[in-house]
Amino acid sequence: MSERRRGVYFVYQLLLAVGTVLLAPWALLRLLLQKDFRQGLPGRLGFVPPLPAHEKRVLLHGVSVGEVKALRPLVRHLRAQLPEHVLTISASTPSGLDTARQAFPDLEVVPFPLDYAGAVRRFLRRVGPSAVILAELEIWPNFLRACSRRDIPVAIVNGRITERSLEGYRKVQRLLPQFDRIALYCVQNERYAERFRGLQVPSESVVVTGNLKFDSLPRGGGEAQVPWSNWLADAPSWVLASTHEPEELLVLEAAAQRGMLQQLRTLVVPRHPRRAPQLLDAMRKAELGVPILLRSELDASTPLPPASILLVDTFGELESIYAAVDLAFLGGSLIEHGGQNVLEPAAFGRPVVIGPHRDNFREEVDLLEGSGGLRRAKDVQVLLEFAWDWLQNPSAAQEAGIAGRTALDERRGATETTFEALQAASLF
After folding, report:
1. Residues 151 and 283 occupy one common structural domain
2. Residues 173-177: what's their mean pLDDT?
3. Same domain, 273 and 179
4. How far is CA 261 from CA 33, 146, 239, 350, in A?
5. CA–CA distance, 83 with 418 (Å, rounded to integer)
6. 206 and 177, same structural domain?
7. What's 204's DSSP letter?
8. CB of 159 within 8 A of CB of 212?
9. Residue 30 falls within a domain, yes or no?
10. Which H or E run includes 364?
11. Is residue 97 part of a domain?
């Protein structure tokens, strides 16, 4: 390693130390007030339970819920093709870890370490991977450096990089180049491939393999399950899914003014369930004119009023909800967050409406919009017009949903091409 790179790493460690000191009061407050943070911190510092030594252990990492779900078809394929390998899953967020435990109940699931040098070394020593697969894009200097020193090959799968991220990486690339430490980039499409090549990644290290998320989606939609099939029968329903503050009240208050809420069952599923108590209080204070119920307090046999709002404060139920509702609004799109995953509701044959912001899922939105299965609105009023049109015309909504689902089915197949690329790069 050059003296220049050593110096840059020294500065990076110093900045981490300064940041830790500055954030210490905030971290201490979270330790005192938030149980999940308190329980999760040791793991984020690398204190995961030591795993049995195995010379062929593959670590697959997804930051949060979406990335972990995208790994599902690849994990299934690896287990079928490489039975002699042991697979371990990691995630960075509590919701990502919960999703991983639900999706892979018989695999070891561990928290991914914060990028402190000691935490990373401790993590790798206790997990002992022979190869690391990172979903989408994870550039952590100390982690990649530690893997390089241990001769652990690292690959990106389902790779994507936004224009904003590209500009950010370009600014720091000269100071802290890391892209040379990743052996293979399996990316979703040619546009992302060109962006990675623009970061001086060798062309032979970038392979267009498609989007694993298409392969992770359920086939054929599926029927609604109890209790949702009981709660949502005999009246139109829609879900405000993966919402961020203040999207819920923006939509609900505008819908109340239009008289929509009085004719629908409305489900609200915030992106972060821990917001539910605060959100419930705000919704009740808004005087929306319909009953507001809480999912955790609703018995399966309790009827849901035809005109009501159900705030879902539980975790892992979105797929069941998509199978039961008539239409989905995806959050993160009315604010400058960049949107949330529009593929899941479309896979269940549900028409989708979103706001103007889609930077995080541009390709997916363009695909569904082009098929007729999604409508993108410039503001909340137009969004409600689109939603109401579909809710009042179930046959048109059904046709749009089928068109969207068909478009997704035509894009499946990334799992096999990704596996072949990983094999060719000697990850296994």
Report:
1. no
2. 68
3. no
4. 36, 54, 12, 20
5. 17
6. yes
7. G
8. no
9. no
10. helix 362-371
11. yes
Q: Are 104 and 238 within one domain?
A: no
- What residues act catalytically? 67
Residues 194 and 294 in one domain: no
Tokens of 401: 């949903």
> Is the per-residue pLDDT at 316 higher than 90?
no
Is 218 among the domain residues?
no
The residues, ordered by sequence, that sit 6+ positions from 70 with a Cβ below 8 Å of its Cβ are 62, 135, 136, 158, 211, 212, 213, 216
Number of domains composing the chain: 2
Distance CA 177, CA 154 (A): 15
Q: What is the pTM (predicted TM-score) of this model? A: 0.78
SS3 157: strand
* Judgement on whether residues 371 and 420 belong to the same structural domain of the protein: no
**297 and 179 in one domain?**
no
Per-residue confidence (pLDDT) for residue 419, from 0 to 100: 97
| C-alpha triplet 345, 351, 352: angle, nearest 5° | 70
Segments forming the whole domain that contains residue 253: 228-409
pLDDT at residue 3 is higher than 80: no
Domain shared by 286 and 181, yes or no: no
DSSP string, 206-254: EEE---HHHHHSPSS-----TTHHHHTTTS-EEEEEEE-TTHHHHHHHH
pLDDT tens sequence across 50-98: 999 999 999 999 999 889 999 999 999 999 999 999 999 999 998 899 9
Residue 21 predicted with pLDDT over 80: yes
